[in-house]
Amino acid sequence: MSDPQPQRVIPLHDHRPLALALPKSAFQADQRLTAQGLLADLRGRALHDLRISVTDRCNFRCNYCMPKEIFDGNYAYLPHSALLSFEEITRLTRQFVAHGVQKIRLTGGEPLLRKHLERLVAQLATLRTPEGQPLDLTLTTNGALLARKAQALKDAGLQRVTVSLDALDDAVFRSMNDVDFPVADVLAGIDAARAAGLGPIKINMVVKRGTNEQQILPMARHFRGSGMVLRFIEYMDVGATNGWRMNQVLPSAEVIRLLQTELPLVPLAPSQPGETAQRWGYAGADGRFDPALGEVGVISSVTQAFCGSCNRARLSTEGQLYLCLFADKGYDLRSLLRGDASDADLSNTIGHIWQGRRDNYSEQRQALGPDTGPPVKRIEMSYIGG
Q: What's the CA gap between 228 and 198, in Å, rounded?
């Protein structure tokens, strides 16, 4: 008799853990901070990007993010009353912008499931940096609803979209989204976004060894010369429900080697401080970067930690502030919003939270060894966005 196959064990727990205590210094009269757009944490990392989750729901069940066996018909999502209103999100965002945030990314779950999302976009589009500049206002989506939403989002003030697309092969794509959604509909959404002027468009492909690595070259061929930037993302140990194992990670270095067997590449410099993707340009016949052919990127948070330049904060659907994608707890800002806190109180609290930041999970993972696996308690990527 053969040995039984090991069963995958998924820890069951609330993926919305208790909040961290707000820093006491935020409420001391002699510790008031004046927002000057120069906020830095304990490692000197500036606050530049804010990712805002607008819903904890998604219409896909990708096994690396929201596996169906956990997020099933009985799963208890947040009630609408728990979600931050558009006005609350805008009020908080205004304080983040005063502290230096220049880029806003709307995420989910799937953000296009949030009703009337274009109203929030319109509110955020009115915000300005201390220098009077508009924000870089973007959104990440699985593309399922993009064809019907793209023009309204553009009209409201959205500038760009990033679309998650893990395969061009329809069978592979349907298997990965686990709801039998056709890839043609996502491609139609990408076309609608381009027609609406939501660009330059970025395409994110999560690469999971043994699942979709055979789609790397077809994806590169398809988007090469399209004006869109394809980025390959290492399968990450985010949350505790996706059964992550290191042997399922295809290192970005291997992705680049595979691409170069057919499509010559040259390294490109980062386009901005804190950029997570390593950029590679397609080479022309002369061996130099050909802008007409475009570029690809790799995001290597498992094999090449970029904690040292991380400048992103994350705001959850219910107003918890997270300082790392791999955090296990956040800071409850909703209680301040719905209490008697003034804008100055909100600004002061955000400032003190960021100044006390020391998060560097990916560096710690590399030091300890990735096969230690994720802890039982970890915030889910579907809750605060990727």
A: 11
- Residues 37-76 pLDDT 10s: 789 999 999 999 999 999 999 999 988 888 888 888 888 9
The C-alpha atoms of residue 313 and residue 360 are separated, in whole angstroms, by: 13
Cβ neighbours of residue 29 under 8 Å, at least 6 residues apart? none
Between the alpha carbon of residue 383 and those of residues 67, 76, 188, 256, 293, the distances in Å are 13, 13, 27, 30, 36
Report the CATH superfamily, name and number, of domain 45-384.
Answer: Aldolase class I (3.20.20.70)
Q: Which residues pair with 230 in a beta bridge?
A: 203, 296
Q: Any residues with CB less than 8 A from the CB of 185 and at least 6 apart, and which?
A: 143, 144, 147
pLDDT of residue 238: 66
Which pLDDT value is given to residue 327? 82
Identify whether the C-beta of residue 203 lies closer than 8 Å to the C-beta of residue 162. yes
Cβ atoms of 178 and 68 closer than 8 Å: yes
Of 190, 107, 105, give the one whose Cα is nearest residue 145.
190
Cβ-based neighbours of 220, under 8 Å, separated by 6 or more:
230, 259, 262, 263, 296
pLDDT, residue 2, reads 42
Residue 271 CB-density burial (10 A; 0-12 exposed, 13-18 middle, 19+ buried): exposed
Phi-psi map region of 100: left, alpha, beta (phi>0 left; psi -120 to 50 alpha): left
Q: Which segments in the chain show pLDDT lower than 70?
A: 1-18, 24-30, 238-244, 274, 367-379, 381, 386
Where is 92: in which H helix or E strand?
helix 86-98
What pLDDT does 16 receive? 52
Nearest to 302 by CA among 262, 349, 245, 243: 245
| Angle in degrees, 0-180, between the axes of helices 117-124 and 146-156, rounded to the nearest 10 | 30
Name residue 204's beta-bridge partners.
Answer: 164, 231
The answer to whether the beta carbons of residues 126 and 168 sit under 8 Å apart is no
Amino acid 9: pLDDT? 41
